[in-house]
Amino acid sequence: MIEHPTFEDLEKRVMELEKANAEGRRAEARLREVEDDYQTLVDNLSAGVYRNTGGPKGRFIRANPAIAQMFGYDSVEAFMEVSVADLYVDPEERRRFVDEVRKSGFVKEWELRLKQRDGSPFWASCTATVKYDEEGGIQWMDGIIYDISDRKEAEERLRESEEEHRTLIDNLSVGVYRNTGGPKGRFIRANPAIAQMFGYDSVDAFKEVSVADLYVDPEERQRFVDQVRKSGFVKEWELRLKQRDGSPFWASCTATLKRDEDGGIQWMDGIIYDISDRKEAEERLQQSEEEHRTLVENLSAGVYRNTGGPKGHFIRANPAIAEMFGYDSVDAFMKVSVADLYVDPEERQRFVDEVRKSGFVREWELRLKQRDGSPFWASCTATVKRDEAGGIQWMDGIIYDISDRKQAEKALRRTNEVLNNILTASPVGIGLLDKGAIRWANGEMVRMFGFENRNDYVGKSIRIVYPNDDEYDRVFSVIKRRFQSGQPPEVDAEYRRKDGTTFVGHFKMSCPDPEEPSKRAVFAINDISWRAQAETEKLEREKVQAVLETAGAVCHEMNQPLQGITSLSETLLMNLRAEELYGPQVKRIMDLTSRMSAITRKLMGITKYETKDYVQGIRIIDLDKSSG
Q1: DSSP strands (E only) in 203-307
Q2: Start-to-end C-alpha separation, the chain
Q3: Are strands 60-63 and 502-510 parallel, antiparallel or unpaired?
Q4: Which residues constitute the domain of residue 8?
Q5: Residues 317-341: pLDDT tens digits?
Q6: What is the pTM of this model?
Q7: Number of structural domains, the chain?
Q8: Residue at which a domain ends, from 481, 506, 527
């Protein structure tokens, strides 16, 4: 028997249906609110959101404003009129994209080369899911798309930068590497320079070697890795490494650390230099410094380093300076303040001021005192090391005891004074010649040539004292020949005074280079005009004496014949009568005899030598002027 629902049952059922219907309406309302919210969200997204079909061309079902704007359209409606395939730069890429979505059901961040309304290409990243129809085909595809042109451009710049960086690293002359930090270590990256540094033909061959095998001492590898792990980096860490053939070399390595999630070493990046030459140079420098130290310790001159304060203290000193000041040891000497070594403390201040001002002093003469107070002269050469403020950090110097030299200089000055007095008082002109010019002349030389001041001769060529160049050339030619033949370098020559008058002088020279007498020499000129005059007078006397002797002989030989002729003439004349024919001739003979007697008397009265012109250019004695 069938039971029919009661009215209460029907009423209850109606109430349940009304309740379910109300809940359905409320659910629909909430769904519409959600859809509205979703649509609002989609419409306001900066990323493009779409739904399109999957056919060969494809058409848009939905699209948000962002995707329309992305493709250069003014409205969503205008954008949705475009087929999907027409938005691709390469339509084949549309086919590959759809195939992948159909196959996988979704794609994530698929990069596409698309084009805007005006044809401008741009890069986009698309994530899409598929809604299949009952037959398993694509009913539609929902997707979100981003314009990644800026990112792609940045990536391109990054790739170019990485390529440039890679090229730079590959062409660096220093080794660049990345390796792991394990016990042995393996190379992840390396440039050609590091492979060449270790004697490998290629980077690939080099990267097959474990890092630890490149160390002379494997323990040093562990110390290096521990330091990198502890500090995160090392700078210019010096390592003793070995090449492929086992040859050791020194390297300087700077490295940084990339840690993994556990804080361990993921890898180490480093740069490495072969510093074998530098280490060798440092070794030579160390040896040189040791030699220098030994040299300084054994120098007879004092060497020191001290501060520049008011008193000053010694930082370093060698045994010679301690001994110079009368101290038994360097340690004892260095306890003394610098200022206490000066006879006059003010001189210390002047010395320090000059070093501070000039940066150095050279052969500065100081009056110092020994431990027992004995003064002595010293010559000091010093340089300064400045601090950051420009003050004196320290002064390095070398010092000599010049007491003996100062005494010698004093004695030399006395000797020079005496010598200068002698030269000044010398009756002979003395001068100094340098490169053909007169540099100095004594008083007699100045007087001899009539010079009025130093400007008349200092710096002037010695040619100014000769009447002409021919005489100058003759003199120095003779001097040079006499030097070469070993004869005394002297010659008589004609000289010219400032007023133009000339005189005869005797020239002597002493020089270090006989090949160039005028280059540098001491010369002397003696006025010998008096000697020439005396020789002329002597010659005159000799001539007069010869004439007198000749005249005396002639007179002696002629007097007796003349007396005989005169006596016979007088006798003959007395025996002749006045009217006889030969009387006048006898008188003529007597007149000529008297004339000859007068001539002999003139001859006997000659006292000087005077001549007169005769026939054919001959000159004869003038008896009238020579006698009487």
Answers
A1: 233-242, 248-259, 265-274, 302-306
A2: 220
A3: unpaired
A4: 1-43
A5: 988 899 999 999 999 998 999 989 9
A6: 0.36
A7: 6
A8: 527
